[in-house]
Amino acid sequence: MLPTKRSLRPAERYEYPEYLRERIASMPKAPGVYLFYGDSDSMPLYIGKSVDIRARLLAHLRTPEEARLLRQTRRIEHVRTAGEIGALLLESRLIKELQPLYNKRLRRQRWLYSIRLANGRPEVVEAVPPDREQALYGLFRSRRVAGERLLEMADRHRLCLGLLGLERYEPGRACFRTQIGRCAGACAGRESHEAHAARLLAALTEWQLFCWPYPGPVALHERGEGLRDYHVVDRWHFLGTYASLKAARKAPAGPLPRFDADSYRILLRPILQGGAGIVPLL
Questions:
Q1: Which one, 16, 42, 160, 187, has least CB within 10 Å?
Q2: What are the CA-CA distances from residue 20 to residues 15, 33, 36, 61 (Å)?
Q3: pLDDT for 36-89, tens place per residue?
Q4: Which of 135, 172, 180, 122 is nearest to 155 (CA)?
Q5: Phi, psi at 62, each rounded to 5°
Q6: Last residue of a domain, one of 69, 98, 127
Q7: What's the predicted TM-score (pTM) here?
Q8: GIY-YIG domain spans which residues (predicted)?
């Protein structure tokens, strides 16, 4: 039995405005970023990205849960990019700059935290771009979350919280967790401290952040239909996109921005695996 009009939710009853369909029909089938605007000309309702802008916008029209967003939309704008990397980087930057209403997950530039080893013990510190002098492990949204993940790792690998500096340690005396099988007994001499330290390092290595592999800034070169983008990156910091290599080489120098985990995650694969042409700028 088909649902009656009365039984349908508002999102299912909503008929999308024809002016949105007409606007979407004129959008390119190409990579880029799109912006939904309501009554405000300066603050978008939503920012998205796709390798095919038109197809992604049509998908919005077929999603009943997004009826509220579309009901508020007065116009849709777009910005072409040469490829997916540029679309991802531009989306991330615009969301942080323009603070759109519906992009709750990415719109705040949060302080992030990592774990490092100090005198063989893990400690939680503010996340910064990793270097070869000090390895960093994991990206966490708060000190509390980092601590929770560290405890979970200790349980999983039967590490001693006393040796980790997370609870009181009495040399030679088995901790409570040893009695319940959550500690392998390094605290009581059942394994050497060296073996415990090696297991800790092996466990943390799963979270290790990658060091910047170049001596200076580089440009990631993306080619698209009639477009060329050069994304300038230095020590995992995204510094901007330029239309030519000459302009990229003249990118403004100065203090690097705060470490951004979103940019790090976007750039990790193309930088390390060569997903785009890499041009050293030194």
A1: 42
A2: 11, 17, 10, 9
A3: 999 998 899 999 999 999 999 999 988 888 888 988 999 999 999 999 999 999
A4: 180
A5: -95, 5
A6: 98
A7: 0.82
A8: 29-104
Kindly state whether residues 188 and 125 are assigned to the same domain: yes
Residue 37 β-bridge partners: 75
pLDDT given for residue 4 in this prediction: 42
**Within a domain: 38:** yes
Q: Would you say residue 27 lies in a domain?
A: yes
- Residue where one domain finishes, among candidates 171, 205, 239: 205
Strand partners, 247: none
Give a yes or no: residue 117 inside a domain: yes
Count of domains for the chain: 3
- What would the pLDDT profile of 171-229 be if each residue is shown by its tens digit? 888 888 888 889 999 999 999 999 999 999 999 999 999 999 999 999 999 998 889 99
Residues 193 and 117 in one domain: yes
133 shares a domain with 91: no
Handedness of CA 166, 171, 173, 178 (dihedral sign): positive
Q: Are 50 and 32 in contact (CB under 8 A)?
A: yes
With tokens 């799109």, the residue in question is 34
